[in-house]
Amino acid sequence: MADDSTVVHVVLDRAGGSSTTAVGTYGVALTRAMLATTPRGIELAAFASAADAEQRARISAQLPELDVAFAKVPARELREAWLHSFTTARFDGILHATSLLAPLRSREGTPVQSVATVHRIPAPDAPRGRRERWERRALRRAARLADGIVVATHAHAAALAELHDVGDRVRVVAGGQPRWAAVPVDADARRARLGTPSAYVVAWTAPGRLAGAQRLVDVVASGAMPDVPVVVLGPVAWGDTTIAELAVTAGLAPARLRTLGDVDDADVAAVVEGASVALQLDPDPGFAAELLGAFALGTPVVHPASDVLQELAADSTLAVQLADDASDADRIAHGIAQVLEHDAMRERLALLGQDRARAFDWGTTAAQLWRLHADL
User: Fold this and answer.
1) Is the pLDDT of residue 125 over 80?
2) Average pLDDT estimate for 98-108
3) Model confidence at 108, in pLDDT bands (50, 70, 90)?
4) Does some domain include residue 321?
5) Can you name the residues that pair with 96 across neighbouring β-strands?
6) What confidence category does residue 109 fall into, taking pLDDT thresholds of 50, 70 and 90?
7) CATH no. for residue 45?
8) 87/202 same-domain check
9) Which residue from 28, 161, 214, 233 has the highest number of Cβ atoms inside 10 Å of its Cβ?
10) Which region among 122-126, 178-182, 333-337, 349-353 has the lowest average model confidence (pLDDT)?
């Protein structure tokens, strides 16, 4: 490294796990993009919490160009330590955290320029579990100490400003399409191997979000839901609770809900591309990789109406207005039925989604973030 180089330390969060997370995949994709567009005189370094050999191998495979440094403590301990300014790692120069996991210090009299990333704004009525409590505290800390805060949409920026005094430190920078957003040449063979039906709806679950899985089961069990299978990508268990148990409790026949678990990128693309409808149930999916991937693959999307999703979608989806009561599952199911029953609507949404996908590119994301650091 040249003596006059500036090091930008990218902090990864939840990368390389056995189950895909939105925060982890965002961090890896962004690091790749920043590495490909690094300005002259800048060197990129990456840092992650302690990991076992398998997780280290997955991170190394995802970022082969970087020698990733790992903390001596695992993620849970690192989160608490950094929340209280305890750290033995040095991050002189520039710090870019791909989540709220960031070793932030006072902005006064420090040589470190710090940027944190906010993936979602906690709703007032959100659960108050361990992770949610940490996210609220980390968000308050970032609002107080970070030189810059990155969010995916103007809706996030507005919600953040209502909660904290962030001044002009917030920058709206959308992410790019997920790595899997390209149809593999053997898509038909992959769907056959995975056993997907000829017509189906695709949906996602997420690690640590049991409530999202319950909402999905409620939609499939709704009397308004068409008689079409739903293929589920993502984790199938949350602690001692499985999505199969939720389905049995809801009285669903086994054929109605087909879980694939975590599969590789090419399989995800094949499944999403082959679906008649993609269902995005999370009203605040952060940088919304699943939404953008469905757009790119020409799969119509149905989702709850929310400021975040409608800003990202720009009228290229069917947004369902919810009532925040027991009728919500029926409303979503009715929206799915609309798209399935009307070929013209399905074709229009597919075309609009593909056009909208072109607005999201990791090269543009990286360029905007390099500009942010230059401005700071």
Assistant:
1) no
2) 85
3) low
4) yes
5) 10, 115
6) low
7) 3.40.50.2000
8) no
9) 28
10) 122-126
353 in Cβ contact with 300 (< 8 Å): yes
Cross-strand bridge partners of residue 346: none
- Please tell me the total count of domains within the chain: 2
Edge-to-edge strand order for the sheet containing 277-279? 257-261, 230-233, 201-204, 277-279, 301-304, 318-320
Based on the domain organization, do 278 and 293 belong to the same domain?
yes
**Alpha carbon distance 165, 161 (integer Å):** 6
What confidence score (pLDDT) does residue 2 get? 38
Contact 143, 122 (CB under 8 A): no
DSSP lists the bridge partners of residue 44 as 8
Please give the pLDDT value at position 316.
98
Looking at the predicted structure, is the pLDDT value of residue 376 above 50? yes
Inside any domain, residue 93: yes
Q: Is 319 exposed, middle or buried (0-12, 13-18, 19+ CB in 10 A)?
A: middle
Specify the pTM: 0.94
> Which amino acid is located at 372 in the chain?
L
C-alpha 71/C-alpha 143 separation (Å) is: 24
Residue 342, beta-bridge partner list? none
Q: Name the amino acid, one letter, at 203.
A: A
Q: Is residue 301 part of a domain?
A: yes
Indicate if 129 and 154 belong to the same structural domain. Answer: yes
Q: Which amino acid is at 361?
A: D
Q: Is 97 domain-assigned?
A: yes
Q: Give the residue numbers spanning the domain of 40.
A: 6-175+361-375
Co-location of 107 and 230 in the same domain: no
Examine the domain organization and report whether 118 and 208 are in the same domain.
no
Distance CA 149, CA 156 (A): 11
Contact 179, 269 (CB under 8 A): no
Tell me how far apart the alpha carbons of residues 69 and 58 are, in angstroms, rounded to a whole number.
14
Lowest mean pLDDT among 4-13, 264-273, 309-318: 4-13
Q: Which residue has the higher pLDDT, 106 or 154?
A: 154
Is the same domain home to 84 and 194?
Answer: no
